[in-house]
Amino acid sequence: MSLIETDICIIGAGSGGLSVAAGAVQMGARVVLIEGGEMGGDCLNAGCVPSKALIAAAKAAQAMRDGARFGITPVEPEVDFGAVKDHVAQVITTIAPVDSQERFEGLGVQVIRDWARFTGPDTLEAGGQTIKARRFVIATGSRPLVPPIAGIETVPYLTNETIFALRDRPAHLIIIGGGPIGMEMAQAHRRLGASVTVIEGAKAFGRDDPELAAVALANLRAEGVEILEDAPVTTVSGQAGAIKVTLKDGRDVQGSHLLLAVGRKVHLDGLNLEVAGVTHDRKGIAVGPDLRSSNRRVYAVGDVAGGLQFTHVAGYHAGIVIRQIVLGLPAKTSTHHIPWVTYTDPELAQVGLTEAEARKAHGDALTVLRQEFAHNDRAQAEGKPKGLLKVMVVKGRPVGASIVGPQAGELIGLWAFAIASRVKMSAIAGMVAPYPTLGEISKRAAGAYFSPKLFDNPMLKRFVRLVQRFLP
User: Fold this and answer.
1) 2-11 and 366-372 beta bridge pairing
2) CB 3.0-4.6 Å disulfide test: which of 26, 418, 441, 456 passes with 423?
3) Band of residue 470 on the pLDDT scale cut at 50, 70, 90
4) How many CB atoms lie within 10 A of CB 294?
């Protein structure tokens, strides 16, 4: 078995691992990248990319049904489900070269396509070779969680790893899990012609502001998605094409297909972390704010770091690690400025504290600003006036923003920047937004923070009257 000595060895070629590899090698470090599965990881092959491609197709289908309000005769679209999946596959194929083995080898990274296994605190084996590195970065991501439901081992089920390969439209898709993945897939499949029932043991969109979540849920229900909340599942049974899900209250839900979307579990199987002296549990690798593990040579990024499970978080972690292991500079993570988006229609977006969290943390020092999309001219012109922006402000600076409405995922970027950079509300209020755009809603919210001081201030009014008397 040959020996490879390198500066940095990265395990996992998903978003976090690829970002570390590209940054480190281009700055002069020797890099080995190990991947036993597909280059690009879950996001490219079974997550963000295929789901958004499917959502785009579903949006096109729904547009054909929604023409009446614009004076266009609505029609029921004829959906070729197999062709839709061809579109999904084509999008993956188009993006794949950016994450490919060929590209990274062209950058100077040594890529080994195999599963890695630690053999000591500074060595591991993969591809019939021993790799000895100054630093290791574990970026193996996560996989769909299969809950311990009675009967699940005997029933065919789908996860995000398998549903995009399904070429025949489900007659009735049952989804267990009312989080982002479950709700995105529910609306997309409903718009593409399937009957859909979502079963959630607690509240759908449970991580989001309840007031805003209610807006999104109302639209999904209006489109025909059945959503059962506070409905724990006790058993599943049946066979392909005839699935039965039994709820705790005794109700049965019948469907043709079952999708599990109840969360993710970190992927650490087979790494032999005990030999490397890396402390971990079912939530992930134990790391500090610098993402370093109990073994000072080993870092973790992305889902396996045990925090927020988003592709953009893995990319953010990569930057934190690169500063330390490539440039030797101190760096630490924070989560207060990390946004997330659920790409239903309307979209749900969040950064920083929700209203409930902000009230608990800041009490009477908190100001909550509200702007409705109904007062935004572009939203009216587009026929999408349903939605709301909330901004949580403390001492003149935003500490959180919640949005439900058209393009909420695009609009949240401004507030993510403002919170990360500690921008004052006055700076956002002073921004000139083009008219008519949805982005004006953020400027109006910032302006509303100052309205009471400007328009409900008796002293200011007396001053203005005085100025008017003496102006030439």
Assistant:
1) unpaired
2) 418
3) confident
4) 15
CATH homologous superfamily of 2-39+100-144+265-325 equals: FAD/NAD(P)-binding domain (3.50.50.60)
Query: Taking Cα atoms as reference points, which of 306, 270, 281, 276 lies closest to residue 291?
Result: 306
What is the pLDDT confidence band of residue 458, given thresholds at 50, 70 and 90? Answer: confident
Going by the annotation, the residues of the binding site for FAD are 52, 140-142, 303
Distant-in-sequence contacts of 67-71, Cβ < 8 A, 24+ apart: 69/383, 70/383
Could you name the CATH architecture of 152-263?
3-Layer(bba) Sandwich (3.50)
pLDDT of 308 above 90: yes
> How many angstroms separate the CA atoms of 43 and 17, rounded?
12
- Look up residue 243 and give its two tokens: 């699935």
Annotated binding site: 52, 140-142, 177-184, 200, 263, 303
The amino acid present at 472, given as its one-letter code, is P
**In which band, very low, low, confident or very high, does the pLDDT at 60 lie, cut at 50, 70 and 90?**
very high
Asked whether the beta carbons of 194 and 173 are under 8 A apart, the reply is yes
With cut-offs at 50, 70 and 90, classify the pLDDT of residue 1.
confident
CA atoms of 171 and 164, how far apart (whole Å): 16
Burial of 308 by CB count in 10 Å (0-12 exposed, 13-18 middle, 19+ buried)?
middle
What's domain 339-455's superfamily in CATH?
Answer: FAD/NAD-linked reductase, C-terminal dimerisation domain (3.30.390.30)
Give me the residue spans of the domains in the chain: 2-39+100-144+265-325, 152-263, 339-455
pLDDT band at residue 262, thresholds of 50, 70 and 90? very high
Distance CA 449, CA 58 (A): 38
pLDDT at 453: 74
Distance of alpha carbon 355 from alpha carbon 336, whole angstroms = 14
* C-alpha span between 471 and 464 (Å, rounded): 10
DSSP state of 248: T
344 phi/psi in degrees, rounded to 5: -80, 180
Residue 308's contacts (CB-CB under 8 Å, 6 or more residues apart) are 335, 338, 340
Half-sphere exposure of 324 (CA within 13 A, CB side): 23
Per-residue pLDDT for 322 more than 80?
A: yes
Least Cα distance to 88 among 193, 156, 163 occurs for 163
Mean pLDDT (whole number) for 278-296: 97
Q: What are phi and psi of 447, to 5 degrees?
A: -65, -35
Q: Which amino acid is at 440?
A: E
| Residues in the annotated binding site for NAD(+) | 177-184, 200, 263
Q: Between 81-95 and 48-65, two packed helices, what is the crossing angle to 10 degrees?
A: 140
pLDDT at position 40, please? 97
Equal fold, 2-39+100-144+265-325 vs 152-263: yes
